[in-house]
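Deviations from the work plan: none for this task. Representative record:
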Amino acid sequence: MASKQILVVPGDGIGQEVTAVGKKVLDKIAGKFGHTFTYDEALVGHAAIEATGNPLPDETLAKMKNSDAVLFGAVGHPKYDNDPSAKVRPEQGLLKMRKELGLYANLRPIKLFDELLGASSIKEDILRGADILFFRELTGDIYFGEKGRKNNGDTAYDLAEYSRFEVERIARKAFDSARTRRKKLCSVDKANVLETSRLWREVVQKIAPEYPDVEVEYQFVDATAMLLIKDPKRFDVVVTANLFGDILTDEASQIAGSMGMLASASIGDGTGVYEPIHGSAHDITGKGIANPLASVLSAALLLDISFGMKEESELVISAVDKLLKAGFRSSDIADAGTPAEKILGTEAMGEQVLNFI
Ligand SMILES: NC(=O)c1ccc[n+]([C@@H]2O[C@H](COP(=O)([O-])OP(=O)(O)OC[C@H]3O[C@@H](n4cnc5c(N)ncnc54)[C@H](O)[C@@H]3O)[C@@H](O)[C@H]2O)c1
Ligand SMILES: CC(C)[C@H](C(=O)O)[C@@H](O)C(=O)O
Ligand SMILES: [Mg+2]
């Protein structure tokens, strides 16, 4: 029996809706296993800008640093998406959090539940057995380099930078993980064009001999985008840079059936942050139909990685499996054969997870 302090940071849009479900799941687990989880909440993103003018208030950051783990929702608002000139933006809160907490490794498991084989537009025989773990570098690359305008604003630039140290630490995490899985690592870059990618490949090649039991392959990012759809089973662990990892994992969500199914863990030097890979989804915000399973599965990652609660984590994942086997679907993972009464909204999906726990 453990005592843990969890910070819940729902953020914006459907982040609010799905994180409420993730929190209920953590609470149910605490009750079932006799743990004491205490919760606090904090603002980020548009919600924080409205309240304080700052997308990541100092108070939020301090609470994050003082928590045992953070359950995060999403940030974003159409107001900023459609206004390229906005100087203060919700996404700055997310990026600053990642940098300030040293969250350099973003684990994005592409877990395909058998029951969802038919939910994807990819053919079943290509998908069956796919199981990929992405290690996306999260605190470097074009996201964090110098950016600006010149020539009276007519030219814009974003500098991509990586240091040997930054590449090595994420690569080691990926190698270590591959050792515990199917012992295959694919390092994805654009070394035929980018200097940062040539350093990336050089570093991975240099440390690879320390992991003789892991079979390493190198792929360019454009080819990887194609291979993920053509033959997802060829991948086990994938390690890649910040921007490539962002794009490839949204693509890979279609292997799992929906953006609403993909969880993530951001880890590094201090408190771990657990969040769906999806955003605030303005198009469905407030409709009560968002799939909460990415948040539920993020809670499962939190239990496993930050708290070392393997059994608790597996119980959450098996509850998701059981609710899918019982035929329940949110609308994003329903198909033509799903009876109307089995298509549930966000809260009702959450109730089923609790029920199966
Ligand atoms: N980590 C984050 O906080 C994060 C991630 C991505 C995008 N964003 C922000 O979110 C906003 C919207 O961006 P976007 O539309 O490109 O990406 P998005 O991930 O919010 O949505 C993409 C599509 O997937 C659907 N979708 C996403 N999550 C779903 C869920 N749980 N259930 C059902 N359907 C789901 C949406 O309805 C939408 O059609 C932007 O402001 C963007 O900056 C934030
Ligand atoms: C909102 C945005 C800054 C963020 C990213 O690009 O990292 C998002 O797309 C994600 O995947 O978490
Ligand atoms: Mg993204």
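The chain has a mean pLDDT of 97.
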